[in-house]
Amino acid sequence: MLPRALLARFIQKSSTVSPFQFNQQRALHSRNKKALEFIAKGWNALKEVDRVIDYCELNDKRLIPLLRTAKENFELALEADNTNTHARYWLSRLHMKYHVPGANKAVGAALLVEAAEMGDPDAQYALGCHLRVENDYVHSDQQAFNYLEKAVDQLHPGALYLLGAVYLTGDCVKKDIASALWCFHRASEKGHAGAAIACGSLLLKGVEVPESLTKFSKKRGAAAHRRGKSKGSVAIDPVEMAREKFEIAAKAGCELGFKWLARLEEEERRVLTEGH
């Protein structure tokens, strides 16, 4: 027979969760799942609206059934799980952006603020943008900046790009090119075409690469060296780094990405020709 001590290692301890707690957790999981199903249905309807809205009037009656479907499903998602921030955010967009029956901008604004305060990064980014550009009577730049920072903490690509622009121009904060480059770099890693172009352009202008990026690149280079690559791959080449950024933009379908890549190729050909 196996010793008791050895058997004990393979026998799971009895759960410390009470039946009441277990039922609560199961109910919460069920509500979350149901809410996500409603959000998916609403999002699909809204996606169809966005697909055709550029080719018709904003209040085109043909869009009404789709908008109603989206609104009903986002509302049902909130009924299923009132803590769901995504449902709040998308419902706020419907109220504030689309000509959906029963739309109310005040309701949309309230939902957006709630979602942002509950930690939804999309809502924090959207609220930061609204406070910066749509509030002529209140000095809300600092408030907008605070919401953008919260979204940046969750690595929201749009917020990273906008915060990079803020640091680059020195708008309401001290101008900081290194921080701007870091923001553009992180946003580009998440596929943001504008950030990739901004980052690549700054690198080609000779902006010094901040230490936060060089450390990250050194770690990647060390990993590459362990895989058998040369030590030279650890060093940062600004032109090659810029090329990577323009390739990200090109993959996202950004025309500027293709133009910058073409310019780099032309410059390389010119240097080779002069070398001969």
Overall tally of structural domains: 2
pLDDT below 50 for ≥5 consecutive residues: which ranges?
6-12, 222-234
How many DSSP helices? 13
**Biggest β-sheet, characterized?**
none
Question: SS-based structural class?
Answer: mainly alpha
Would you identify the CATH architecture of the largest domain?
A: Alpha Horseshoe
CATH topology of the largest domain: Serine Threonine Protein Phosphatase 5, Tetratricopeptide repeat
List how many beta strands DSSP finds: 0
Oligomer: single chain
Give helix % range: over 70%
Order of helices and strands: HHHHHHHHHHHHH
Task: Please tell me what the overall shape is.
Answer: elongated
Radius of gyration: 25 Å
Quote the average pLDDT.
Answer: 82
CATH superfamily of the largest domain: Tetratricopeptide repeat domain
The gist of it:
This protein has helices at 4-10, 19-52, 64-80, 85-97, 105-117, 121-133, 141-153, 157-169, 177-189, 193-204, 211-226, 238-251, 255-275. The protein has 276 residues and is mainly α.
Explain what the structure shows:
The chain has two domains: 125 residues, Tetratricopeptide repeat domain (Serine Threonine Protein Phosphatase 5, Tetratricopeptide repeat), CATH 1.25.40.10; 114 residues, Tetratricopeptide repeat domain (Serine Threonine Protein Phosphatase 5, Tetratricopeptide repeat, Alpha Horseshoe). It contains 13 helices and no strands. About 7% of the residues have low confidence.
